[in-house]
Amino acid sequence: MAQQPNGFKANPTTFAAKRKARRFAMQGLYEWLLTNNPAHEIEARTRAENHMNKTDIVYYHELISQTIAQNESLDEILDPAIDRELEALNVVERAILLLGVYEMRERLEIPYAIVIDEGVELAKHFGATDSHKYVNGVLDKLARQLRPEEFAAGRAARKAAQQTDSTDHSDTDTDLT
Known about the structure:
Layout: H1 15-35, H2 39-49, H3 57-69, H4 71-78, H5 91-106, H6 112-126, H7 131-146, H8 148-165
């Protein structure tokens, strides 16, 4: 595997490898929110304790290091979109939402719908019973704010698809008896 400028060996960059990177990054952010340990320590321990050869390591490194480095500006975006104080958020939900805000703001090549879906999947796996609903609602609200053109285009496409699906077929004479 090719060596990256940051010293990491390049692992796969498939969708599944990025999903694993998000999962490890969310767990690292969870630890950081609870302990305030430095990102490099969390990352080193995570890499030492886990089999990560099918994980996009470069993406994992970006997610954990940049989300922590940018946490204050990410919190400023997140704060108006939630219904409680940041400190009152469930730690798992906050870690997932921080990742989602980071990806929506910084990784414009990833469709907002993927960012939302990935956040929802993390919440279903790691969060409380209905965490996924909360994460979905907050990330949806943030998509409108952070990616208004993409959000509007997605909404228009869904509306067009619904209109196509609901086309009236009453003019066909079909005897169902």
